[in-house]
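Backbone Fold Data
Goal — fold tokens
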Amino acid sequence: MARPIRVEFPGAWYHVTDRGNARQEIFRDDHDRQKYLACLEQNLEEFNVRCHAFVLMDNHIHLVLETLEGNLGRLMQRLNTAYTAWFNRHHETCGHLFQGRYKAILVDEETYLQTVGRYVHLNPVRIAAAENTRADEKRQRLRDYIWSSYRGYGRLRGRPEWLTCQEILSAWGGDTARGREKYRDYVEQGILGKAGNPFKDVKEQFVLGGQAFVDWVYETYLCKRKGTAREQPQLIRLRPTMSVSRIASAVAAEYDMDMEALLAARKHTGAARQMLIVLAWEYRDRAKSLRSLADALGGVSVSALGNARVRFMERLKGTPRLRAELERVKARLKSE
């Protein structure tokens, strides 16, 4: 399996998980948990990162973090190194404490922040020990579990100063008594099985968001990225796709042509036809064959598509007007 891609930028939100090496415990007692939170607080301040939710389980942790300076990797390296060094000294052990790299899912906060917060806060009742308990027992366990930010979302007293609750609570009217009560009801509905797993929607192991967010991440941070050979398939699959008919409509509008005539054209000498082929190739579904693309473009040969692309790119180099037309078509496609 390819190694998950890392994308960092100012203002990015992440769901971070870290697990013990070989499933070992990373917290043996409450003293360990207190130390981890102290290390977390120190590094949040040093790296200018906000923590919106957390839960500490015996052998893993969950964090919802917002990086104001695009520096998640530096934060996690420092945090894990500091805690591991302390843990080994305190327990007279040695070696790795955490299992490889931490896992970070880039989150579209506008569409998934609340569901991710609920998922994190429900962790104490998802463990096997709570599986066969009654709903009221689970609810009480959730409220009593002190190594989670959930208690801070329910009341102001005892909330860590470094915990930021406003953004998640904003969907329920903000950090008010009423807002906190509504959020508690929202989370605890999950005990009754009404909370799905938002991470089923994760794309390419690292991004959780609507299609517009995924396209923005790809076009802003990934489309020109060299990456490693193992990352390239993920980047390819993440590219936005568009139907041939949608592209043909935009090209036909730019050149004031009939869309059906543009699609049916067998000759590839015209700029409009070549532009259609170039864009259809760029936004094609990589899971489908090039033969299917050629069929959608009038039943031409695959080699004809390749030749048309080459001619268009040569034409583009010395024709500023053509480049402007291409940019207008792309802008139209993105706005639709």
